[in-house]
Amino acid sequence: MDVNSVTFRFWGEVLEPTEMTWQQLMAVKHTTLTADFHCVTGWSMLGTEWGGALVRDVLEAAHVEVSTSARFVMAHCTTEFTTNLPLEALLADDTMLVWEWKGLPLTVPHGGPLRLLVPSLYAWKDAKWVSGFEFLTEDRPGFWESRGYHMHGDPWKEERYG
Questions:
Q1: The model's pTM
Q2: Which CATH architecture has domain 3-157?
Q3: pLDDT value, residue 39
C-alpha cells in the first residue's frame, strides 16, 4: 500500500468532520510504548514495543472537537472491518495509532500501514488497516461484535463473547 494515499477521517459527533493525510499523521508527536497484547483465543504477547502517536495527540493535531454527546467510537478500516469502543478507551493514556512494531514499519499482515492499539482491551479492538473514527452517541456492534464477540472486550475480565 502506498502510504502517500492514506487518509484518516474523523466524523459523526464532532464539531466539524475532518481528515489527515499520512504526512500529517507522521508530523504528530511520536510516542514509543511498551504494552501487552492479548488475543481473544487465549494467548498474549507481553511487553511488545509499539511506535506511533497517542490518539489524544492525533485528535489535537487534527483539531477534532468531539461533541459532548459522544460516548462511543466506531473504528473503521480500509476493509469491511469495524470495531466499537467506549470514548474513554479511545482517549486513554496508552491508546495509539501505530505504524511501528519493534522499531520497524508495521507490515500489512499485522495491520500496516496503520493500526489502532488499545492495550486495555482484547486485540480484536486493535483495528488493522484503520482509516477513521466515527464518534457516536450510542454504542453499536462492530464486525466481530455483531458475530458474537463481547461489546467491551476486557482481557482481565475475560470478556470474550457476548
A1: 0.95
A2: Alpha-Beta Complex (3.90)
A3: 87
